Structures are given as structure tokens and as C-alpha cells.
Amino acid sequence: MLGIRTFDPQAGGNMAYKALTHPWAAEKLALLAADLAQGGPVAIYDPHGIAQTALALLPARIAVAGVYTHDSLRVGQPCGDMTLLALADLPRTPAKTVWALDFRHGVMENRLSDLLPAGGRLRTLAEVRLPGNMLSVAHDYLDGLNFATNLAFFRDTAEFSTRLVSANYWSRYGADNVRFWLRLYDQAGQVLHTWEEAVPRAGQAIILDSAEIRQRFGLPEFTGQLFIHAMGIAGHDVVKYALETRGRGDNPSLSVTHDANAWPAARYANLPAPGLGEDVVLWLQNSHALPVASGDMSLNRMGSERHIPIARALAPYETVAVHMGDIMPDLAWPEQIELRAGGHVVRPRYEITQRHRTRIAHLNVERADLRPDPGIEKLDSRFFGRGYLLPFPVPDPARYRTLVLPAPMAENLDDLPVRIDCFDAEGKGAGLHFMGRLPRDHATVCDVSELMAAEGHGELVYDFRDGGQADGWLHALIRYEDRRTGHVAETSFGAHIFNTVMTYRGEPQSYVGPPPGLSTRLFLTAAIAEPFSFCTLIYPSSASWRPCSDTSLYLHAADGTVVAQEKVTVPQSGSRAIWPHRIFGEAALLRAGEGAYVIIRDTTCRLFGYHGRMMGQDGRFSVDHMFGF
Questions:
Q1: Which of 384, 395, 470, 625 has the maximal Cβ count within 10 Å?
Q2: Running DSSP on this structure, what letter comes out for residue 571?
Q3: Is the C-alpha dihedral spanning 623, 490, 264, 187 positive or negative?
Q4: Model confidence at 244: pLDDT above 90
Q5: Helices in 482-559 by DSSP H: which ranges?
Q6: Rounded CA gap, 245 and 248, in Å?
Q7: Cα 505 to Cα 380, 409, 416, 508, distances in angstroms
Q8: What is the C-alpha separation between 148 and 27, in angstroms, rounded?
Q9: What is the 3-state secondary structure (H, E, C) of 142-194?
Q10: Which is nearest to 440 in space by CA: 343, 338, 367, 362?
Q11: pLDDT confidence of 381, banded at 50, 70, 90?
């Protein structure tokens, strides 16, 4: 386990972690670590409680004479395998170098000038600060807006190309000089290219196409990762995107996945075992400038404590394909696999190949902080109705199978008491199915297409008729199989409380502002030619809310200009298929041009959507949940 602190749902993100692992800063940190290692023992002053994270991220081990704190209540407490010392005792340290873990050298110099040991020198983290022109908030270095970063699985080969799409949503908050600092790594973790892209216009489309980038910079084929740093931003410190993967030539592959979660985690779930004739590849991408030793990551069947180490070591930023059939040959769909990632990778992708078609989806972060919450079973139905629910589309059952595989998504969850409620497109109940009180190691899948006579949507909800636990982090993998063509797509997501005026532990959530989250702003690509983009827009309702949505669709050109606007209504507990080329028409999409996108906006309720792409000729399609901002 890499001894770092990254993200905590209560405290939020540890920006010092992001500041130290930014590739530009990591290069400077390596130089600093080498210098410190040569200078003998080091006394560390830790004003912000980041010593363990900082030491874990050093590529060279240093001798530590002691870790000091100014907080009298922390003196004597453990810090890794050491005990925190009082800053007042710093002058008696035998070390000749004091390393203050703060990015402000002047402040530390002023604070410690009378406390340095005789002949001692002061080093700080100011040596690894990003240049001023890379900061969005110059006066506060560890402001989250300075480290709006993310990673993307990025590939351009003879078989595949990738395309990252988003929009300049920071302009809504007043940002007028948005830029991206980008670094592309190849499969071995070597830097292929570093460059900047300007996104100057409000609402401007963001398109990073692997083929265009490869041609522009004269790069070889690559399968690696793209580091993304948004600069000059305001209002939102998360880089959100959709990532399209397309097969080239005769390769019939098509996938669209959500952005990676930018914070490495200890465990990930939602990784399916191979089905008949399937090759399931887990793409492990080292997120740090540090090597990962053989055996530092492992896999296990969900619910089992028999861990199988991943014997392959990873170089800094290296990308490695791990075949589940090779490492866990006895497992088969619908069994599930858990990744013990040890904090080395951000949310990984997995790729399934079957009959020369591939599909890509992502794993989800498994929470370490959650405990079962008995209050969920006792939620007042007057306020919260059916409580937490996970909505998902159910396309035409005559053509598509919709398979739901509930997934434990917290380390301390032993079982899943769940039911599926079905609704037609107009919001009328279309049946339900109690899946049972599923144990953590279950392999139970429900074919929802057998429960419904027409397209609509389903909702996975808690059902405590046989007892069981709930933590509010209810997840499932949903797989779609085309009976006619054999093409398959899949997605995974978690439950929320939707459209209630009362709140429970931060639910219902909103993309912007505190709960209750009674509004919608979703991003959808628009295409004037195949593969056409689409979304299934669902109006989930935990309790009774407005009978119909009041939803506006805004078609934007790539430069951010609004080209057209249309209105749709979605009945409560109903759904609508949104095809931009049908709703706006060919003429409007031609005016919008390449890179056009749609913003789905509703101020009366929170809608939930799944986006995708589809080829009408051969039935290729993809599905993943949408993002909003």
C-alpha cells in the first residue's frame, strides 16, 4: 500500500497530494529528494499533517531525524513508524537540514529562523511549486482550482483511436483564459509529448483526438495515458470528459466511457469475470512518478480473502494489460473481481474482447470510510419515498437483453438486499423483481428484459424484507446485449436519493451547490454522421415530485455558440430517448458543425442520463452514464 492520503468524502481532496504528484512538480521533487538524501539526516517540520504522504512520494529514501509539529495536541502521536516531536525542541535536532513541508519559503523562513539548529539550512516545498502561469488562484497555492487535473486512457494504433470530449464549463463562473497543460505517456511510461491547448471561448468544445495529436506532433503508435491539467479556471475543480474509443477499418469496436476519478484509491470493484469466449483485460496505469513493485497490487474474487498478486512490476506512468483469464482462470461471468490497487492507480478501465469486438468500461472506487447505516431502512417514506435508487435504461426488450449485476462498493458491506422496480417510458409501473439479500460474494444477475414488455427504465432499490445492510453506496454493473448483432455494451453507477425536498446525509445531491439537488445540467455530444450520439434521459423520483419535467436542450457549435433550442418533457418516473440529429434536424447540426454538443438543462427536477454512440448499419453501440457540471 502506497502510504498516501488522497481524497476523503468528509474532508475533501488532499491538495498537497495533487501538488506533489503533478508530473511537472514530480520532476522537481525527485531532484529535491536526491539532494536531501546526500545531506545526511533531515528534520521534518510538518505544519499541515502531510509528512507520510510526502515521504511516500519521494523516489529516493531519506534519513529522517524526527518529524516536528507546532500542534501541542499532536505531540507524541504516531506519524508512520515515528512519533511527532514538539517544534519548540527543533533546535536540539542532530540534523543539519530542516525540511519544512510548506510551499511558502518566506513564511517558513520567518517562522523557523530562530529554531534552526546551529549551522542548519532550511529547505521547503517551494522548490517544487508549479510556475505562476500554471496557477488559477495565484494567492493560494493549494487552492483546488490550481490542481484541476485528471488522467485519461489514451490510445492510437492501427486498430483503435480515442477521442476525449468536453466543454469549457468554467466560463460559466467567469473564467476567460482557460488552457490545458497536457502530457502524453506511452505504454512504457515515457513522455511522448508535452504541450498546451487554449480554450479561450465561453462554452467552447474541448476535443482531444488521438489521431490528430499523433499526426500534429509526428508521434508513433501509442497505448498509454494522457495527463490533463486545466488552468485559468474558476468555479469547478474537476476535469470531466467523455472518452470515445473507436475501431479502425474493419474493427467493429465502439465504446464511450466516463472520466476517470482523479484520486487513487485502495480498492476498486465492478470488474466482471470473463464470460464464454471473452478476454477481459484490466488496464493498469501507474499514476505516479514512482515504480510499483511486483505484488503491490492484487486481485481477488469479490467476497474472498484469497489474494492473487499481480506479479508484473510497473515503471513510473507505465500502462500494463492484465488478462483476467490468465491470472484467475477459474472465475467466470457473472462472478465479480476486486482490485486491491494500493493507491497506485486512478480508476482503471477494463476492455472485453469477444468475437473481434471490444468494449471498454471503468471500475468504480470502493469506499473504505463507509459503514452500514441502519437509518436507511428507517427512512420516513413521507419524506424519501423509496429512498436510494439507481436508475438505468431498458431498451427494446425484443432486441436487447438488459442484465443487472449488483456490486458491493464499500469494504465493510456484507450483503445487498435489493429489488428492481420497472417503469415504462410514460412512468407507469411495469413490474418488479426482488433479487434477494445477496451476499458479498454473490454471482446473481437479473435479466430485466424478461420483466418488461416495452422499453423504459429500471431502478435498483433497497428492499429489507429479508433483512440486510445498506450504506447508501448501492452500485451495479448493467450490461446490454444486442440479440440481433451480438454487440455488447456496459456501464456501472451508484444510487442516489432523487427529487425530494427533505435531505438525508447530503442527498439528494446536486452538481452545483448544496442539496437538495433539484436541477439538471448534462453534457451530450452531437454528431452529423454515424456514429450518432444519443442519450436516455430518465426522470427518477424517490418520492412524489412534479408530474413532468420542463427540460430545455441547447445545441452548441464547437465555439460555444448556441445554434438551436428545443423543449422536451419527461414524465415523473418516465424516460425519453434523445437523438440530437432527430430533435434538431440535419440543417441545425450542419450549422453547428464538427464538435457540436448539447446541454440538457432543467431547473425543476434532477434528471439522470446515459449517453452513447450508435452505428445504424451494423448495430454497434455504447452506453455509459452522463456527466454534468
A1: 470
A2: B
A3: negative
A4: yes
A5: none
A6: 10
A7: 14, 18, 20, 9
A8: 19
A9: CCHHHHEEEEEEEEECCCEEEEEEEECHHHHHCCCCEEEEEEEECCCCCEEEE
A10: 338
A11: very high
